Every structure is written in structure tokens, then in C-alpha cells.
């Protein structure tokens, strides 16, 4: 109802302003009045705050997406005749949650956590259901959507989902939701890095299997370094993963075996991702 | 002079009390001093009184001949290898040493051999310089080998009429210690332990290690972040591994 009233108010205000006085000064004042009454000022202010918080590389598409989502926020769109179906509603909510989650990179921890909580609220709030909260089915769907949009291969995603998925009927608390979201985004970045690493190892069009395996083994060794206190573990890993140690490992691998087959990108990514997923704590 | 000061400090640290006059000494003496200070064992000796050599009767003729002889025997120690002689000078200008060693078996008597001839202790016998110095004499300064020393005879000369009484004080004789850490010492000095150098003898053409290293380190960092960020929340699932009871297994927070 409030939306239906909104289009009429500015028209009335403008016509009143035109009827009231044709003078310039009053027209300026009434323009400000018009903007405030239309709610445009607050809307733009919220939009600018969002841009400042997210700091996107391309502000214009970001703002376009923002206003797009703004229109979807109210359950009944102004002008739409029928209320949308339940499935469409859920898709919309997932889409909105995704958009919120993508606003900040996972390394910007405060902004990311804020967005995660907003997304959680968005998914949990629903007018139709009796009990608010996030169910396992929506959570799983969201996870799959994130991985699919990030173009992660299926063989990598499914072991991760097995670890962090929840059953359909379970209610997902906020901590587990946050952990799942963070793990997904970090895995996507990890896969991107592994891809870049494969590119570096793939000089002259062929990534030698021995070299790839040596690099992966060194990474595994550094990850196993362990149960010691944090600073010494980081120092040890840093020394193991330094350029000279890696060069020695690769050189030794090339001298050790004689085979000359190449490792494919998919296999490399799968092996690298398995190292990552091994460190993910399963939900339960 | 700097070497001299170092040697003095070294010997002071090692407990030796010998301060040789270093002006005319060489680096060989310095190393010999360092080596000997590390491992020397004093040999007990019997020093007979200084005898002035003069022509005629000592009691009747008043004179200062300027030559003294000191005999040194080693009754308790058998023939030994002499390494070092230390003493404190007292206005002796020149020193000669004769040694009697165990000779070869076919010789009947042991002969006296001069091992040090007119060693100058005071550059100018009339002046004070070197008159009261502490002096060390080493094996390598001798003219012959000092392998099996039986007796020593030190001949002191002071030609200046200014110094009527002259002698050598605090005579000490040293041989090699049971083991010689000096060799180990110098080895340590001359061959410091090489720190590990990465063998940059890479045979094949490898992918750029810097880029590989940076990517791998980022991957490690991401994995560590996930490992560190483990949530402690539990979903409260009760799993019973029985197929019939699978529907009843998840009791907590069941969604209608």
C-alpha cells in the first residue's frame, strides 16, 4: 500500500509546487523536498554506503546489481499481479543471499562476516513458514550454487560438500553457515591459485608429472608440519616453501625418475584440492 | 706490534706468565708461543749455581770476567724433548746454550753440542734495554734437534763494565704436553665450518621457482586459514548406524 501511494505523492507535490509559485528559489527548495519525500535521498545514501563498504572494482555494474536486488526485496512487487510461487521465492532469496555474500572478499574479514549475517537473516526470514531459520536444503543449495558460479570442477566440489553439507531437515546454526560459506569461497580461491600454479609449471605446453608431484608433495609436507606452536610452524613452512627448497625438490624429482609423462590440469587440481579438503573439519 | 699485543693477551688468558720482548720477534715465534702455551709440561730440573769463568784464582784476583755458566741437569726426568725455555733476564747481554743429548748407540760418550750461539738479549750491553725482560726460547730457534736432552749448559756473557752482577732468573724448561690440542686449535682457526650453501647446480630447465614458490605459499596460507578457522558449533546430530532406525536417528532440531 505504501508503494502504491508513493507514485502519487510526488506528482501531487510537483503539481502543487508548480501551482504554488513559479519563482526559482522556491522551485529549488521544493526539489529537495521532492527528493526527500520520494525516499530517493535515503535510498541513494544506503547505496553509497554499500559501495563504500564493498569497494568494488567496477562500481557501475555493482550499483546496477544493487538496484536490481532492491526491487526484489519486497515480496510483492509494485505492479505484479500474482504473488510469486514458493520455489521462485526461494530462488530469489538465494540469489539475494549470494549477492550479499559476494560483496566483500573473504579476506576482508569484518565486511565478510557482516555480509554473511545479512545473508543468513535474509535466508532465515520468511513470511510463509511457521518457524524462522535456515534449513539444510536451502543451505546445501546455496553451497552448490556458489561452487557452480565459481566454476569449480565437480570432482573437487563433491568431497567438500560431503564434509560441510547438512541434511535437508536439519536447522543450520549461524556458525556452521558462516564456516560453510567461508570454506566455499576459500576453496574457490584455492582452486584458482592451483590453476595459476599449473600454468607456471606448464611451460612449453607440458607439465612434467614428476615436477608437479614434487611440488604437491612439498606442499603436503609443509601442511603436515604441524602440531607445534604457530610461529615455529609458519617459519618452518616458510623455509620449506622457499624458492631454493622448491627448486631443489623439483630438480631432485627430475633426476630421480626417468618417466616423461605429463600431468593434466584436472588431475593436478584434484590432487591439490584434496590437500585442502583434508584440512576442512566435517560438520557433525 | 699488534701481533705482539695479541700474543701477550693470549698468553695472559692461557695462564702463561711469559712476556717475551716482541720487537725483534717474528710471526713464527708468535705461533710457536701460541702453540706451546696450549700444551706444555714443565720438566723438573736442578740448576747449579752460576760459575764465573775467569783466568786465575777466583779468590785472589779481583775481577769481573763477564762470563757465567749455569749448568742444568734433569735427574728425575729422563731424556726428553725440549720444547721451550723461559726465564727472566737480569742484565745478561748474550746467551749461548750447549746441550748434551743421548747419542747414537755406537758412540761411547755423549758430546756437548752448541744449540744456541750468542743469542742477544740486550741490544746495547751498556743500556737498560732488554735488561730485565722475560724471554722464551723455542725448539725451532735451536741449531740442532732437541729430542733427547740430558743436560744443558747456559753460558751468559755481559761485556759491559756497568753491570757487574748478571744472571738469569726463574729458569723453566718445558716439553710437549700429553696431547697436542694446538694442532686442533689451529685447524679450527684455519678451517671454519662452512655454512650450508644451496647447491645451485640445477641440471634441467625448471619452471620459475619464485613464481612456483609464491603460488604454493598462497595455497598453504589459504589451507592454514581454514584449518585455523574451524567452527566449534555442532549441529547436534545423533547418528545411529542401523538402517531401520535411520529415520529416527536425527532427533535434535528436526525440521517439520
Automatic annotation (TrEMBL), chain A:
Pfam families: TPGS1_C. Coiled coil: none annotated. GO terms for cellular component: centrosome; synapse. Residues 90-281 form the Tubulin polyglutamylase complex subunit 1-like C-terminal domain. InterPro entries: DD_TPGS1, TPGS1, TPGS1_C. Residues 1-30 are annotated as: Disordered. One of its GO terms (molecular function) is tubulin-glutamic acid ligase activity. One of its GO terms (biological process) is sperm axoneme assembly. This is Tubulin polyglutamylase complex subunit 1. The gene is TPGS1.
From TrEMBL, chain B:
The gene is NICN1. The keyword Protein biosynthesis does not apply. This is Nicolin 1, tubulin polyglutamylase complex subunit. The keyword Signal applies. Keywords: Signal. GO terms for cellular component: nucleoplasm. It comes from the Eukaryota. Residues 1-15 form the signal peptide.
